[in-house]
Here is the input.
Amino acid sequence: MKVLGFALRAFRRDLRAGELSILLAAIIVAVTAMTAVGFFTDRVGGAMKDQASQVLAADLVLRSAGPISPGYLSDARALGLEFAETLAFPTVVVAGEQTTLAAIDAVSDTYPLRGQLTVADTLFGNGRPATGVPLRGEAWAEPGLLGRLGLEVGASVSVGERSLRITRVLQYKPDQNIGFINLAPGLMVNLADVPSFGVVKPGSRVTYNQMYAGSDAQIATFRKQLTPRLRPDESLRGREDAGDQINAAIDRAQRFLTLASLVTVILAAVAAAMAARRYALRHLDNIALLKTLGATQSFVIAVTVTELAFVIALTSVVGVLLGYGAQYGLAVIAAEFVGFVLPPATGQPFLLGVLTAATVVVGFALPHLLSVGTTPPLRVLRKDLPPPRLSAAVTYGVALAAIGALVLVIVRDPLLLGLIAGGVVGTAVVAFGLGWLLVRALSRFRGAAGIAWRYGLANIARRGGESVVQIVAFGLSLMVLLLLGVVRNDILKTWEQTVPANAPNQFMINIEPDQLPGLKAFFQAEVGQEPVSLPLIRGRLTAVNGTPVKEVKVANAQGAAFLQREANLTWTGTLPASNVVTDGTWWGAGYAGPLQLSLDAELATNLGVKVGDSLTFNVAGEDINAPITSLRTIEWDSFQPNFYVVLSPGVSADLPQTYLASVFVPRDRVEMLSRLVRQFPGVTVLDLEVILSQVRAVIDKASMAVQYVFLFTLLAGVVVLLAAIQLTRDERRFESAILHTLGAARRKILQGVAVEFVTLGSLAGVLAAVGATLLGWGLATYAFKLEYTVSALLWPLGLATGALIVGITGTLATRKAVNEPPIAVLRDR
Amino acid sequence: MLRAAGLTKQVSSPEGILTILDDVSLNIGRAESVALVGPSGAGKTTLLAILAGLDQPTRGRVWLCGEDITAMDEDGRALLRARRVGFVFQSFHLVQSLTALENVMLPLELAGEARAAAVARETLANVGLSARVGHYPRQLSGGEQQRVAIARAFVMRPEVLFADEPTGNLDSATGDRIGRLLFDLNAEAKTTLVLVTHERDLAARCDRTIRIEAGRVEAGEVEAGRVVA
Ligand SMILES: Nc1ncnc2c1ncn2[C@@H]1O[C@H](COP(=O)(O)OP(=O)(O)OP(=O)(O)O)[C@@H](O)[C@H]1O
Ligand SMILES: [Mg+2]
Here is the structure.
């Protein structure tokens, strides 16, 4: 109790006297950076969970090949769940003379439970959210269906024995099947109309769905009830299942951003250690005094620990509040590319904030402050008693252990922790080495003109160790910002330049072989250029060297995954330009002999096959068997359609197939595509530029978010600077008082200070530019395989930013010490 | 009240073992005032530190308030100091970040005293500093700072007060006032006073003077009032 009261008073007084300012600022920056990311990823995580529900149009979907027991629905109702039913089946739709295959989606009035339908009143018209579902006797058609049948909104179509009026264009439904091959265009109808069609009979290909939505707890309960009662042909899909991939991506992004903010935490922790050291040294005399006044060692330690607990409490609260405010910045950046409003954050990141504060305090401040607790009381009489020294092993050991523990909590992976630790230590060693060299090189300029220069540069050299810490702290944060701001842009530009100006930008699929000549003629007439086309054959690998795949042992998981799905095959006589044969021989342009296969070399490795082995593919119910006669490596980013498996020409031409085609259409001619859709119903057009610009927007936003996180690192760099200045404050006051009494003008002293910090900042800028150049070059050359030339902007920008920020902050922070009247300083001694 | 027997203090230095105190014994009664005098470097501060339990002798024992403090550990001595011992130093040793009042409150707060502020205010009034309670040490003159330090030393009504050259940093007139204050408070509170000083007047006011020379007590303690060489 006595300890608590005393510590509280001491804390209040230290706060008032500004003794804790830098320490608090350092910890608050760390907590803010950490929790800003925490709150943000928490919200994005929540958003993605919602998104996963939208993909299902519900929280839980029961799918079956036969009618589903209505009993399930009454159970759902009993639990308070919302529910909907849908029925999906393919059938022929007739409009006058025209017929086409359509995917019918019959939905109950409550569909969709999650997400929204987008509809329009005309083909390619402006979309808007739909209210409800098609009324009885009405239907909403997808654009492709209208194209195939040559209809407009308002026309009637027949489904079985029933005629339906098309009242809307259906542009989007949440549970859209993604996958663009051989997909019949959709027609959405009211579930109650289905019996009147007379097409759903026992044995017809129908998928029945029941959809449920409710709170997490309700869904979990219901799922548990339902699972044991399912028939073999019934399956459940929850949003965990739908969201697996998304979750993994979010998890990765979250860890990455958290690790990025860890850089801030480490820098801030360094500042905290410096501030704690100064605090400790300043309090040596006070602690000795307290002891002569009768405070025991354990009391002093208890008070110290309690005061630090207050520090943790205060910084956590302030930091979490600031972090919550700061995440809005991230949320605004993200909102655009996530494309919807983020849900509110949970309280989880608060814990992260407390943990961060505790890590910095325990790992970096506590050792210094505890060591002071052992100050002997005799110090009040004998000033020459040296302050208790802290062994380097303890200081660094505790600090590393604390940061290590924090990282482990974040990444939950000892191996990754090892990698990160290696990276951090490696970077630190290189950066410190560079910093040290820079400081060393500086001493050559000592003789340069003027007292201000000599005084300023002498200061950097004298406080060599601290100078290096400041240069490194600042240089690293600047480096990351340069890398994200300048180098990223350079790399993107370089990459864009490698894309030829008239590279194909429109991609077409589902072209029937008899449509191909007409399509070519169409483009020849419209844009004066024929599209490049390739046949596409869908096939499933069924046997290797005559052994059914069920019994085949493939080399790895990617190989196994290939067996799971239908593969896209093509046939051609000429080797695609982006391919290189690495083994065997290519059949050549005029080849028309027995069927042969050419495989992607990597796929061959994954499957564990080589030239000479034979593969059997099932194509539309028919087995085709051929030997592998060559392996190829493929340049995947060549903007050309590429295929793992290529067949030789000749007999391949008789297999069931469609065509893909790609062509360049100038931006101002894209309106012709709507004519294309009408003239060639069934052909699906993908606009690569739209896709690419979306990808680019996502990259932009993502790097902006990362940049935002690293702004905190810059802030931490500033705090390191302030901590270092504070550490030397008394010394500086005394020095400038002496210089004053020796007759130096205040302005001269201040100039010296300015020289010192502008130089420090410039050195940090040099370090940043060197680092960003090297890293940028490495990334460009090895990760993106691009010729990268360093932007001329990098160096001046790094130098100027460093000199400006450090110069101004440093000079301002030191000005007070310089400006104090010498008498006040000398009296304090 | 305060007794020392065979105190020896040795430290090791580059030139070998240095004997600072050599077999010092003394006995000081309740409410007695004693001046420790001697040339610079004689070992006065060292002796005071050991008597007050701030330092440990190499050999010998010290009994303070009837307890053998040489047998105690650092914390035991601290607890003894907390309630029964006061200090005044040559260089005041006020906490720079605390006001005069807060400095005087410190020992009370350490002892968990509830009415710390009121008691401290009263004590500051006793040393004539009522008007300066809210001032920080650097806003006070040397004499005022020392008065704050004296108030802090007396606020717990200690049984023994140790002072190491309390007037050493002050001009003679101010030193005189501080000396009077010390003795007035001492008389009023019946405190045992152990005082290291170079000031003859101050030493002369004590009941007794003990002269230290090169780490030894000079033969023949001198009674109060008699001339000290
Ligand atoms: N820890 C130590 N290490 C080395 N020498 C010491 C130590 N403590 C004291 N001394 C020496 O012991 C001698 C006595 O010191 P002390 O401070 O007790 O003298 P003093 O009588 O108080 O002198 P003054 O009147 O100048 O204050 C001095 O020569 C001092 O240098
Ligand atoms: Mg002395």
User: Anything to note?
Assistant: The helical segments of chain B are 44-51, 74-84, 100-110, 116-126, 142-154, 172-189, 200-205. The interface with chain A takes residues 45, 48-49, 52, 54-55, 74-75, 78-83, 85, 87, 89, 93, 95-98, 102, 106-107, 109-112, 138, 152, 164 of chain B (CB under 8 Å). Residues B 11, 13, 18, 20, 38, 40-46 surround adenosine-5'-triphosphate (ligand 1) (CB under 6 Å). The radius of gyration of chain B is 17 Å.
